[in-house]
Amino acid sequence: MDTRTDARTAEVRRDTRETRIRVRVDLDGRGDAKLATGIGFLDHMLDQVARHGMIDLEVECEGDLHIDGHHSVEDIGITLGQAVAKAVGDKRGITRYGHSYVPLDEALSRVVVDFSGRPGLAFDVKFSAGMIGALDTQLVYEFFQGFVNHALVTLHVDNLKGVNAHHQCETVFKAFGRALRMALTADERAAGIVPSTKGCL
Fold first, then answer.
1. In angstroms, rounded to a whole number, what is the distance separating the alpha carbons of residues 104 and 119?
2. What's the DSSP call for residue 106?
3. Strand, helix or coil at 123?
4. Among 17, 74, 173, 193, which lies 20 to 30 A Cα-Cα from 106?
5. What angle do CA 77, 152, 126 make, to 5 degrees?
6. pLDDT (tens digit, 9 = 90+) per residue, 24-50?
7. Is-contact 157 82, C-beta < 8 A?
8. pTM flag (> 0.70)
9. Alpha-helical regions (H) of the chain
10. Residue-by-residue DSSP string for 86-102
11. In whole angstroms, what separates CA 194 from the centre of its chain?
């Protein structure tokens, strides 16, 4: 079930036998976050997306963490993607493209996003550790794949440098937030116009 309260705000619920998730986004927020995913490091990463994307974000997840974090992380990505797609609407007047480079000590990541209407993920991150807190680093790819498939965006994620897995991951999520912020910002010169020669996205 999902509800839409205005053109830039959406709430989506996803209930399966593996997870129960609620995500609410305000794309014109102040970067406030209320997060309870059950995975502390994932909360920390989503907080980066909210803060640096200037997106108000609420995420609640009850997942089968007694098995592992896979279903929770992937399904949060899916639900967040659905919420962003709902909130952005027909994309009239948005910048559409966003990119960001973010450093953290020795680590540097680049994220580029296109609200293209076509899902596509290119992900090149070689984590130096298998776990960061309770987050399996393999699941970062699954999070972004779920997001991409349901937000209908093209997303390129590259960790260019880094030896500390925490730093690698944090630069990725911060850059993701900054890229979203750029892409979702209104383009005053293109107010009311869909940013595509096709006339739709």
1. 29
2. T
3. strand
4. 74
5. 55
6. 999 999 999 999 999 999 999 999 999
7. no
8. yes
9. 40-53, 70-88, 138-151, 165-184
10. HHHTT-TTB--EEEEEE
11. 22
